[in-house]
Design brief:
α1 packs parallel to α2 and α4 runs parallel beside α6. The strands form 3 sheets. A 7-stranded parallel beta sheet has the order 5-4-3-6-7-8-11, with helices on both faces. The chain starts with a strand and ends in a 7-residue tail after the last strand. The relative contact order is 0.13. It is built from 9 helices and 11 strands. β4, α2 and β5 form a beta-alpha-beta unit. The protein is globular. It has one domain: 3-Layer(aba) Sandwich (Rossmann fold). It has 278 residues and is an alpha/beta fold.
Length: 278
């Protein structure tokens, strides 16, 4: 799933050459499905994967314009757009089948699509129930449905594959009082990742999780613009001094999916500037 590039580096003070080995990610011949691929971490992942040779099924929920823009930036011939509303029960199975129909294979599944609904405990019962149901359906159940489809497909073909689930720092340290459902869904994704790794690694199916803190995405930047005091408050909690760029999350996803470290299966990689260290 990767290539090794050997390069000669001339030493400045010696008339000799030294052989150095560099490992490079190469997804040539691979097809990835990235959910929520139109913006943010998803868009950065689509671009990173196409840059390293992958063909990508770019899933989006409603923003066709953003999806098309990301595809153009990544290489339109390298992307296949699929619209699916993951808040609807059973849609994940349809999404998987559409993804498979493009090239006849999907080798990498990145479960990135997620929602973040506020549900204060003092709010109405309807608002509370709605936030929990939508959050769990999109963040957890649709993720589990796609994992099930992928594992059944890969077991049947004997091909193996990689799953990367995008969780959150909130899975470990919790979240603000209005976001119980978000923290709970992301915590469950960690347990799901561990379970799949223990159950299916012997079949060549490797499952990982990434847990970002605040990341520089359009959503985060919009929130900072609406509340000028938010960014300074967030940054004060980050020893590195700023939120993470989405490209770093994408690079981590690519590394995990590359097959370069399969013994990491079942583990979670934190990307939060040391704002939460386990």
């Amino acid at each position: 799933m990767y290539r090794q590039a050997f390069v000669f580096v001339r030493m400045l003070n010696k008339d000799k050459y030294k052989l150095r080995e560099h490992i490079m990610i190469d997804f040539s011949g691979k097809v990835a499905l990235v959910t929520g691929g139109s913006r943010g971490i998803g868009a950065a992942t689509v671009k990173a994967m196409t840059t390293t040779g992958a063909k990508v099924v770019l899933h989006y929920g409603s923003n066709r314009e953003a999806a098309e823009k990301t595809a153009q930036e990544a290489g339109a011939d390298k992307c296949h757009l699929v619209c699916a509303e993951l808040s609807e029960v059973g849609v994940a199975g349809t999404l998987w089948r559409e993804a498979m129909s493009w090239k006849g294979q999907v080798d990498i599944l990145v479960n990135n699509a997620g929602v973040f609904y506020s549900a204060p405990i003092a709010g109405t019962d309807d608002a509370w129930q709605s936030a929990w149901q939508k959050t769990l359906q999109i963040n957890l159940i649709a993720t589990a449905d796609l994992c099930r489809e992928a594992i059944n497909t890969w077991q049947a073909s004997g091909s193996g594959g990689s799953i990367v689930n995008i969780s959150s720092r909130a899975a470990f340290r919790g979240d603000d009082p209005a976001y119980w459902s978000y923290a709970a869904s992301k915590g469950a994704m960690i347990s799901l990742t561990k379970t799949l790794a223990r159950a299916y690694s012997s079949d060549g199916i490797y499952t990982y999780a990434v847990a970002p803190g605040f990341v520089s995405t359009d959503m985060a930047l919009d929130a900072f613009e609406k509340d000028p005091e938010l960014r300074p408050r967030v940054v004060r909690d980050i020893p590195m001094g700023d939120i993470a760029p989405s490209s770093e999350v994408a690079n981590t996803i690519c590394f995990l999916a590359s097959g370069l470290a399969t013994n990491v299966t079942g583990q979670t990689i934190d990307i939060n500037g040391a704002s939460y260290v386990r």
